[in-house]
Amino acid sequence: MTKIAIIEDDAVINQMYRMKFEAAGFKVEVADNGTRGIAMVAAFKPDIILLDIGMPEMTGDEALAKIRKNAASKNTPVIILTNLGEEEAPKTLRSLGIHSYIVKADLTPRQVVARVKEALGLSED
Asked: Least crowded by CB within 10 Å, which of 35, 56, 58, 87?
């Protein structure tokens, strides 16, 4: 089963995406901040990570820098899922090797699931 980690501080969004991805056949773990997200990624070893940028304690780019230092997750695909426009995002994101950038308001959860499947090379059912 394909594993996805969602690191997002909004509990409603976490729950919505958890339900959508579980319905699509993914095993899902969520974390509500960057610090917990780093620990979750290390333990869960997801196939892909959805990462918010604006979070308390640690921003998404700070969390991603730490995730990339772990040998097990240094090449895990990461999709940024945020409400920040790409031009407002920290410039360090590209150098940290993100797969793609999604503005939450621009896509439905179903479209986000399709983007994740596409990133993983999984076919749409």
From this structure: 87
